[in-house]
Amino acid sequence: MTEQIADYYKNIITSLGEDVTRDGLQDTPKRAAKAMQFLTRGYQQNLEEVVNGAIFESDNDEMVIVKNIELYSLCEHHLLPFIGKCHVAYIPTGKVIGLSKIARIVDMFARRLQIQENLTKQIADAVAEVTNAKGVGVIVEAKHMCMMMRGVEKQNSTMTSSVMNGLFRSSSATRAEFLNLVRD
């Protein structure tokens, strides 16, 4: 698979007018192929493997929040990075998820070709599925290179997307608590 992707990169670089035999570019197609495979490794993962049974009994029924989870993804429209952070909260119903597993869920979906709106929903749906929570709230804040490096070239723009389900949607107090706790 790496060789096939490298051949595509070689064709792209050549089509741009570059000489792929020059010293600095000789190994670039292979390096780019390996980088793309790494950046999209989420396609080789699934929720069951990522969670790996790390669901634990708990009598806690108060909000659990993991905030400022770094994320790196690729815009599905331009294949350019978007970089940001994610805040995830849920209200347990007898089960909690291992702390690192929330970050792994974020990474699994971020490491696919994405739009931020779908990424946010995928994370919320996955956390809800594995925890059976009373509610899940997810906020993603990111800077998009497709908006910064090309097109409108706005360097200071940040996109924020959120998904609130269960109590986070039906209870304004729960939603307000979450929003207040994730403010920096």
Describe the structure.
There is one protein chain. This protein is α+β, with helices and mostly antiparallel strands and 184 residues long. It has 2 domains: 2-39, no CATH class; 49-182, GTP cyclohydrolase I, C-terminal domain/NADPH-dependent 7-cyano-7-deazaguanine reductase, N-terminal domain (GTP Cyclohydrolase I, domain 2, 2-Layer Sandwich), CATH 3.30.1130.10. It has 8 helices and 7 strands, in the order αααββββαβαβαβαα. It has helices at 2-15, 28-39, 47-51, 99-110, 116-131, 145-148, 167-170, 172-182; strands at 55-57, 64-75, 81-91, 95-97, 113-114, 135-144, 159-166. The strands form 2 sheets. The chain has a 5-stranded mixed sheet with strand order 5-2-3-6-7, with helices on both faces. It has a two-stranded antiparallel ribbon with strand order 1-4. A hairpin with a 5-residue loop joins strand 2 and strand 3. Helix 1 (2-15) crosses helix 2 (28-39) and helix 4 runs antiparallel to helix 5. The termini are far apart.
Detail the topology: elements first, then pairings.
Layout: H1 2-15, H2 28-39, H3 47-51, E1 55-57, E2 64-75, E3 81-91, E4 95-97, H4 99-110, E5 113-114, H5 116-131, E6 135-144, H6 145-148, E7 159-166, H7 167-170, H8 172-182
Helix pairs in contact: 1-2, 4-5
In short, what is this structure?
With 184 residues, the protein is of the alpha+beta class.
In CATH terms, the superfamily of the largest domain is GTP cyclohydrolase I, C-terminal domain/NADPH-dependent 7-cyano-7-deazaguanine reductase, N-terminal domain
- Trace the largest sheet across and list its strands: 5-2-3-6-7
CATH structural architecture of the largest domain: 2-Layer Sandwich
Q: What Rg do the Cα atoms give?
A: 19 Å
Shape: elongated
Please trace the helix and strand order, writing H or E for each element: HHHEEEEHEHEHEHH
Assign the CATH topology of the largest domain.
GTP Cyclohydrolase I, domain 2
